[in-house]
Design goal:
The protein is α/β, with parallel strands linked by helices and about 600 residues long. The protein is built from 22 helices and 16 strands.
Length: about 600
């Protein structure tokens, strides 16, 4: 459809189409991740960021493109997750600043808005890296400015922008050697291309061109917009491993990923002048991936640093620090190199987890009229496991697990169901911890909440056991953290493809044993894999082994495993419970 300009309604529709397109292809973007970013996956972060902006725009759209762009910018800024999300928010922040003066944008104005977005994003990043989302955005905007002088048709211009973005994306491995080494294009750039595809599809057909799958049906795998490099096809087919596995954990120099806000209106130094360039320079002494976004009231900071304490001290010079997130990228990368119930680094290695809506099951005990001293929320995968948590006094159980993670809103709703002075959350999966922490932050000042960062079901059960109603919050928290640190978690499942991990050859269909997120056993027999796994987990001094049987566990194998444990480790107390978890035949817990 020929179109000479876009107004607020057009812009809103384009953004919603772009957000939908990105959402449908987020997992493909995730699969391209090559850098060990701890904030999760690029596709997930960009999707969450774009969704936050789109939701804000749904609530506050007008006929003015300038006003709509401003609304989108605000939503993206506050909802930005991770490096890729922050850069995405800056691209549209700049676009919004340029568009603010217009009710409609013609081709030259739209191109100028894209270019302003690029300029803003590059300014926000201290050390811009080419071969990333920045490069894709830059090349697309530069071509837009050139082509806008030759057409008055917005749709034709967007066709050119999309084509140039795809071309720039395909060239990212030539600019960033690690992409070429692994054989992928840049994940953030791919995410931006999907957004532009949504823009283009709306302008040409009035829709995103994406069909939402029927309820309960998993989305079809997204086809890559740009194919993997032909040169690397042999490498990929033989290695068949995630991009992160090509990197060494020890190569991560600036290991602490930090995100926080500085409230310039609060703190001892509210009148201190903020020199953004000097601040960035100080951060760069022991850091990289630096992003600083400031206005008169707030400074948003993202940095990868060797010295988080120094970063905090520096930030305190300019106000009060809020919404602090600090994660260890080496720890995350070690998790990403392996797989298990408590992480999601290589989803292609395991059978797909069935799609299941996160839901709050009925509390074990209805909330009392008067506030109880404590309340508990736990995430569970399996009816038997849910029953165990309820028997331990957990008030609300969220259905969740690998690839079916509860949202922040799920946690907030569950917290509202609990009438307690202090609420503990047991995420029981490292991919769920962030959502739990986000819920805590949203309710800060309204409810007292502690997130115990349990990364597996066994850790969550151990934490619940350690809780004592009569103890103070600090004492309970300390005891639960100590309890989860003592638990060794193990899982047995099936491999769905051939691979080699740390000299362990794995064949598709074999049973594999995972100990604390490391694959340690592979066998054609379920019993043999289970024995091998437990042998690596049990050490001198261990006293308790808990076995949680999955929905596919076989009774005779379970009996044989129990007999073997009693004969081989007579000093160990063995407990067997029906867990009912999908895909994992057994979950093992070993405690001293």
């Amino acid at each position: 459809m020929s179109k000479r300009s876009i107004n607020g309604a057009d812009f809103t529709a384009m953004v919603l189409a772009g957000a939908e397109k990105l959402q449908q292809h987020a997992e493909h973007v995730n699969s391209l991740n090559v850098f060990p970013v701890p904030d999760g996956d690029t596709g997930t972060n960009m999707n969450l960021t774009m969704t936050a902006g789109a939701n804000e725009l749904k609530k506050n759209n007008t006929a003015s493109v300038g006003q709509c762009a401003g609304v989108l910018s605000k939503g993206l800024l506050m909802g930005a997750r991770g490096n890729s999300g922050v850069i995405l928010s800056q691209l549209f922040r700049g676009l919004g600043r340029y568009a603010a003066q217009y009710d409609e944008l013609n081709t030259q104005q739209f191109a100028a808005a894209l270019q302003t977005g690029v300029d803003t994003a590059y300014k926000a990043v201290v050390k811009p890296v080419e071969g990333t989302i920045l490069t894709v955005a830059k090349e697309a905007a530069r071509h837009a400015v050139y082509y806008a002088r030759r057409t008055t048709d917005i749709t034709e211009l967007m066709t050119e922008v999309l084509s140039k973005a795809k071309e720039a994306l395909a060239n990212t491995p030539e600019l960033l050697p690690v992409l070429k080494q692994v054989g992928v294009v840049d994940s953030g750039g791919q995410g931006l291309v999907y957004i532009y595809e949504g823009f283009h599809q709306h302008l040409t057909s009035g829709s995103s061109g994406v069909q939402t799958p029927a309820q309960g049906q998993a989305p079809a795998p997204a086809a890559a917009a740009v194919p993997v490099l032909t040169k690397q096809e042999n490498v990929l087919s033989s290695v068949q491993s995630s991009a992160q596995s090509q990197l060494s954990t020890e190569d991560i120099e600036f290991l602490y990923d930090m995100e926080f806000f500085i409230n310039r209106q609060l703190g001892a130094s509210v009148k201190a002048d903020f020199d953004e360039e000097a601040f960035r320079k100080a951060l760069s002494v022991n850091g990289d991936s630096i992003i600083v976004i400031s206005d008169d009231e707030t400074i948003k900071v993202h940095v990868h640093s060797k010295t988080p304490g120094e970063v905090m001290s520096l930030a305190l010079l300019y106000g009060e620090i809020t919404q602090i997130h600090i994660l260890n990228m080496r720890e995350q990368h070690r998790d990403l190199l392996t797989a298990g119930m408590d992480i999601a680094p290589m989803p292609e290695l395991f059978a797909d987890m069935p799609t299941e809506q996160s839901s709050v099951q009925a509390p074990a005990v209805p909330p009392a009229d008067d506030m109880a001293p404590y309340g508990f929320i736990a995430v569970s995968s399996g009816e038997g496991i849910s029953d165990i948590f309820k028997s331990l006094g957990v008030d609300a159980v969220l259905a969740g697990g690998q690839t079916m993670n509860p949202s922040t809103e799920d946690f907030v709703n569950a917290i509202h169901l609990i009438s307690a002075k202090h609420v503990y959350i047991l995420p029981n999966n490292s991919n769920i911890v962030l959502a739990a922490q986000q819920a805590k932050e949203l309710l800060e000042g309204e409810r007292d909440i502690t997130v115990i960062p349990s990364k597996s079901i066994p850790q969550g059960i151990a934490a619940a056991f350690a809780f004592q109603e009569e103890d103070a919050v600090d004492t309970n928290t300390e005891n639960m953290l100590e309890a989860i640190s003592q638990v060794k978690s193990g899982q047995v499942t099936n491999a769905v493809r051939d691979t080699v991990i740390e000299d362990l050859e794995i064949k598709s269909g074999q049973f594999i044993g995972i100990s604390n997120s490391k694959i340690v056993a592979a066998s054609d027999e379920l019993l043999a894999a289970s024995k091998a796994l437990l042998t690596t987990m049990l050490e001198n001094g261990d006293e308790i082994v808990t076995v949680l049987t999955g929905s596919d566990a076989e009774a005779d194998v379970t009996d044989s495993l129990g007999s073997w444990l009693e004969e081989t480790y007579p000093q160990v107390e063995v407990e067997v419970h029906e867990g009912g978890q999908p895909l994992y035949y057994y979950l093992f817990s070993v405690e001293p």
